[in-house]
Amino acid sequence: MPAIRLLARLRRNGGAALRLPRGAPTALAVVPLLALTACGYGSEAVSDSSGQQVAAGAGKVDGLGSVKIGYFGNLTHATALVGARKGFFQRSLGATRAEYQTFNAGPSEIEALNSGSIDIGWIGPTPAVNGYTQSGGRSLRIIGGSASGGVKLVVDPERIKSLKDVKGKKIATPQLGNTQDVAFLDWIADQGWKVDAESGKGDVSVLRMDNKVTPDAFRSGSIDGAWVPEPTASKLVAEGGKVLLDESDLWPDKKFVITNIVVSQKFLKDHPNAVEAVLRASVETDKWINAHPDEAKAAANEQLEADSGKGLPADVLDPAWKSIRITDDPLASTLDTEAQHAVRAGLLKEPKLKGIYDLTLLNKVLESEGESTVDDAGLGVE
């Protein structure tokens, strides 16, 4: 039997031993071993259909064929980027495939979570709050943190030389009601200026545009600045912009949640072991990122390139990476504050956030790793 046909049968059999036909060359008996060692992990790994490494003999977590993970192509989602690139999620899930889907905006990711197109996602705090409140507390749970910081107000230094010069200017945010939009509207209110939240018109013109087009708009002069996450902020700096304000400076201890991990409540209830596996991988990834920042930065950029076809140049990647703090802590008290900012802006009715967090599995993982547990600020599920 030709070796290629034997390999095909081997794949169909999931790597099980094959009975060779009588008279087959003895050398073919080593084909299964060669097929395994070619994966790069000796006889301890095989590749699944997506090419990711799966430990030989590993079982499926909760009997699942796959776990679908969503994230944005932003460095503020570094845990997901690095975890996917370096295989942390796949190793933790064993023979259950880690499948990935990228998003450009929070509402579309929440929609995917609600429809079952993804099971677990990395997402900003405002979309998480909106998704939870609009469903009457039935759609999702926040099960972990991922990142703090990485948001800046970058301006044209020829047009805006001080914070008071922002009045009367055109400033971009990523999307109406997204985390950065809400933060900017709240900052505007703190200055005593008036802006209609829905239209963006007022003492400052707030223009909502996709982060992908913001650098072009800045370059052309159609906007005077932008309140945006990394790496968009550093892209604007590379275009001649100046960081006028780092949002971290507005928060106690310079910490505020920018990325959470969310899961559909149904998936959490039906597949707790799979959720725990993803959280374990997230904690391991965060530990690795903080211990190997340069390697992690490169891995995140490699995943950005794989997802979008284009990585970030060093003059954008390096400063962007430095401004983000990777953390397992969801910084729950700051989420409550951000929700109040949305209420103040008129974009959200007074939210009922009790039950939005379930940190049980995260704290289980943290305790097993000898790490300190994290707090839900009184907003946990009972």
From TrEMBL:
SUPFAM superfamilies: Periplasmic binding protein-like II. Transmembrane segments: none annotated. Pfam families: NMT1_2. It is found in: Cell inner membrane; Periplasm. Its main location: membrane. Keywords: Cell inner membrane, Cell membrane, Membrane, Signal, Transport. The keyword Transport applies. InterPro entries: ABC_SsuA_sub-bd, NrtA/CpmA_ABC-bd_dom. NCBIfam families: SsuA_fam. Belongs to the bacterial solute-binding protein SsuA/TauA family. This is Aliphatic sulfonate ABC transporter substrate-binding protein. It comes from Streptomyces lannensis.
